[in-house]
Design brief:
Layout lengths: L2 H34 L5 E7 L5 E7 L24 H9 L6 H6 L4 E3 L9 H8 L9 E3 L12 H13 L3 H17 L15 H8 L1
Helix pairs in contact: 4-5
Length: 210
């Protein structure tokens, strides 16, 4: 049986275990968010899922409720004016992404895969179409995430997503998972005020993997 057929079962089990183990952390974060600012604990945003269908991704709310909607943080002129103190910590540690375990449990996302584009990120959606990256479940983290994240230009991000799909395997997912832990510890690749600043040759990465 191909790995693809096992991947969903693995994701389902991991999401259940993750929710059980991390439930105390969830509660602490929820309390911190409510104590600092008005508004819901979770932030819902329309994203592109499997085969370009739409779903609502879940995150812990890191911004004030008056922040612009459906605009990537890196496209805001001064995002710091909207980000709360708790939110800044959650973003730096990537803890704001934890509620997506619920999306994984529901089958809307996978643990590893291309990060889901905003519904209006048409340039990224079109680029991903070239590599079949819209035909798999989006992930909590992925190959592009550990190779530049927000620093990557759209074209390179889509090509990295295509490289992941072409080399999809259990070991590829393990590499992405371990690489994500390392990136979070180093706090790499997160830009609040800009994108595409990393000029990175995808060819060199691909050649090393051959």
């Amino acid at each position: 049986m191909k790995y693809n057929e096992h991947k969903r079962k693995i994701d389902f089990i991991l999401s259940i275990v993750g929710l059980l183990v991390l439930s105390p952390l969830f509660i602490c974060i929820m309390v911190a968010i409510k104590l600092e600012s008005k508004g819901p604990v979770f932030f819902k945003q329309k994203r592109v899922g499997l085969n370009k269908s739409f779903f609502y991704i879940l995150k812990f709310r890191t911004m004030r409720i008056d922040a612009p909607k459906d605009t990537p943080t890196h496209l805001l002129i001064d995002p710091d004016q909207y980000i709360t103190k708790t939110g800044k910590f959650l973003r730096k540690t990537s803890l704001d992404e934890l509620p997506q375990i619920i999306n994984i449990l529901k089958g809307e996302m996978a643990v590893i895969g291309p990060r889901p584009a905003l519904w209006n990120q048409y340039d990224l959606i079109v680029e991903r179409e070239k590599y079949g990256a819209n035909e798999v479940l989006p992930g909590l983290t992925g190959w592009a995430q550990i190779n530049g994240r927000d620093e990557l230009p759209i074209e390179i991000k889509a090509e990295l997503d295509g490289y992941y799909i072409k080399n999809l395997s259990f070991w590829m997912d393990i590499r992405c998972f371990m690489g994500t832990i390392l990136s979070v510890v180093k706090r790499e690749g997160v830009l609040e005020g800009g994108t595409g600043s990393m000029i990175k040759e995808i060819a060199s990465t691909s050649e090393k993997e051959k």
